[in-house]
Amino acid sequence: MDDTVFDVDSQDVNLKGTYAVQLKYANTGGILTKQALAAKKGDFSVMKYFEEYRQKTTTVGTFKFILVTNRKFEVDDKELVMENDNVKFNVSIKKIKKKKKHFRFEIADTSTNALQDYENFFKNFTLVTNYGTADAIKEDIKEIFVSKFSCQDELISKNYIEFVRKWNQNTNSKTTLHLSFVKHVVALLILSPTRFLSFEPKPEDKKSKLLKKAISKFDVTCLSTESYLKIKNLWHCLKERQSVKDLEYLRRARQYQILGSSVNCLKDLNDEEWTKFLWLLGKCPLVVEDSEATRKAIGLCERKKFIVLNAKSPEGYSTFHNLLNLKKRKKILYKRILSTFTCSIQGKREISLGDLIGKGDRIVGILDVDKLVAMLDKALLIGKPEDLPPSPISRFLSRNIIKYDFLEEIDLPQTLVVFSCMSPITAFKNQFPNIETIKMEEFLTYEKPLIKQDGFVVLSQNDISKEQFATICKTVPRGHCCYHLRYFSSMNGFEWVRSSTNQNLHQFLLGGTFIEESELTRYEDNINLVCADPGMGKTTLAKTLKNTSAPTTWSVLIYVNNHSTYFRRKIDNVDEFKAYIAETIKSQNSNFDFEVIEALFAEGRVRYFWDGLDELNNDGFKTVKRIINKLSEAEDACHWITCRYLLREDLEEYFHVLSRTLKEFDEDDQKTYLKNRLECSELDEIFVKIRNNIRLFPHNDILGIPLQIYILTELLLRDRHKYNRLLDEIFSIADLYERFVEEKFYFHFREKEGIEDIENASDMIRNRYFNVKDKQLDYYKALAMRLYFDETVLQKYKIRREISTSKDPEGFITDVSDQACPKFFHNSFGEYLAAAYLAEHEEKAVHIQNFTFESKYNNIRFFFDLILAKKSPIHVAVLYKNHHLLENFPDEEFRNVDEIGRSVLKVACLWCERYQLVKFPVDRNLFVVKASPQFRHTKPDPEANRKILDLLLRKCDEEEIRQVLHQESLFHEANFIRVLPLTLLTKKTNIETKLFLKNINTLLRYCLHFHYEDLIDMFDQTEYWSNRFYSSTCIQFHQYISGQRLRRMAARRREILNKK
Questions:
Q1: What InterPro entries has UniProt attached to this entry (predicted)?
Q2: Which of 101, 259, 415, 1023 sits CB 3.0–4.6 Å from 263 for a disulfide?
């Protein structure tokens, strides 16, 4: 290449203009002489170039001419004599100061007009010498790429030189190299190899069009490599729209050397070439990896679009990094994307991005383009749903239906009852003509509390939200009770929704009405309570509710026992608790998910699901209650609590709610479950066998409890022949758990050893199996003890606190919390294993404080007693409260004892209800029986307990009864006492023990409350009570129950007085 012409556009007038460059290189270099410059012909003849310049200026105008050579030029004499057209003149040669090898020429005598043309030429002529070798120039070009564009790759500068060489060789269609053209060429060289787009045909949906349009509004779009792979097909239709025979496109493609000279059709381009070509046309973005060189190359290209992969923080361009960028730039397009793109929080129902974002911009700023790409094919999943196996049976929960008598019994003037009428209001008025009603719209217009002598109820044709109810409650005088009920003309009662108190509601509850689990969230309030027996599926319900709760909220499922250490600290500060939970959530979610979660928390869009409150100690339980209450008040957050029945009364009283319970599987459900799980021809026979067992033990309804029917079917699936034999026997729930645990070990060991069965294996394998099983079982039992008992008990049993965090091979331990607390795959397995440990160390079990009185130990005790009663069916009958079966036992079996020597009477006493001791105010001889909150929901022992005790007192030896009566630990510990067995045994033996006499006031108080009329007679015969009773000046009963009951008690008192 020996001549080049280029234009320079600059604000510097001295630089602006057209430049013609003549290159004269010699492979061997050499010396440039003054004679060569003064010659009339030759490569360095100045006059030859003058003549060419003079000819060109007549057609193209003035331009600057530069002669460049690699020859050395050393000037001793600064004067040079030149001759042209018989004109001689002197020319001085001057070095340009900053450019030592750049020379300018000036005519010495400028007074002659004949030299004017020469003078104009020399003003625009520059000689450049000593320019170096070709290799040196290549190094210079390489250095320019390094310094200006941070390009360390030598290949880029070589490719640039090669591009210019090919351009120069193309003599037929050589065009002027404009600056923008060169910039694009340099950018492509720096950015190559680029990621190419795909042009395979693909249907284009609304979301793809919107995203493509959004990308086109920015210079740079930031994406990850993964996202690029998903959207590389977005521009596929562009290829189809280009005319493959368009000569102009062909010319431009060749100009950029995208097409070779032999290619005559655009369709012959591959995807990478197509991508570059369409980018040069401004039709699509160029996809490049982020780097410093990339950013500088992008700076060369105005009005071109780029997708930069894995960019950190590109600056200096309009950048599409997140939705906030789009909101500021194109608000209409932003809104269309919000309404079109969808997401799902924790796998719940899909919602639009607009619903996720809400009113603030916090989430907008963290929704980057990668997340939009993820939403092209499906909704973006934020957080993970709870894993739940498919259930073939719909679960049902109780509805709290209040009898119509409620309206007659309550004090309406002191009570506000608001009805959401699901049936026409006229139906309510017709059904209750004597009740004054006011419509909701009218009631809300009153500025002051509305008071009417006979009271009134408020009717709304629409359902009332919890927020509306809270507003209504503020309008009534302090001390008034507020109830929100639903009215259905087709029902036999009102449905309780919420209230400011649950006082007196239990006596009006109707049973037998249920709603399907899927409807439950329609009835949610701030505090929602579900109580059920172990194995009924409370944890599964909590997971289901979490997965199906309000789709715009974040659901937090808290297994409270995993956080027992925190709750034992008794810290109920809401902010501290939220910070603690946030750290737990953070460790379980990606950075993006956690940022969204933080935003949802900040906006109060949270639902809490609390599971297993019954697994906490008393201090931890109280802390959790306070935290729930404070969270509910501070944020109006919704809380679901699932726990066992033993906490029902406490939680209902504390939160002023009524609980729901899970309905057991009925016979149809049981058959459906068995059919889906077993799929065998003997299904009916199996069902009958199990039902026969249940009839023997009516409190052992294995089929009605989901976990237990699962265990049974799992055993039958593992070995149908073996466990069919079990069905022919009378088996307890402890037997079921024992076999399930053994089967787990059996199955895992066989799988690990690769053997069919252990019975036919070698002695060495069988011994190894038993050793491994016993060692692992001991480990599980120790873990279970650690889970349910405090440090004092662990030290007494010398149980180590170490716990392995590796995966449990048998699957009994599903997780270990950060506080090293094991989580069994169901709590009842932990309770069974703890009971098994205690049964092996029964001599120490009796020393565990409050073991037989604390309700939280009930399940462990039940397993413990069943294990010890394995060889005594009469004990099992007592534990399952089957008095009909008891009556059929021979008299001699009533003298049987269990594995630790306990009689059936002793075990029966241990399973009677325990009650708190009552403190009585005494004013001299005045004995006062007051109303007390502890009696409000206190219920007597179940009828089955009374029947069992009555039967045993008839069958057992009197000496045995006296021995049992004198064992105080059976009836009393700490602040609790077992009223029914103590009073019954006292009456039977006519022996007044110290325990009886010491607590006689408490015993009478409960006997009066429970209507134990036959036992009240016993107090009349008691010497202690007679002296105390008849020396009193009076006995005052405060009205803690209905007036009718109080009158009956007063009549009973007069009867006793008259008898005396």
A1: P-loop_NTPase
A2: 259
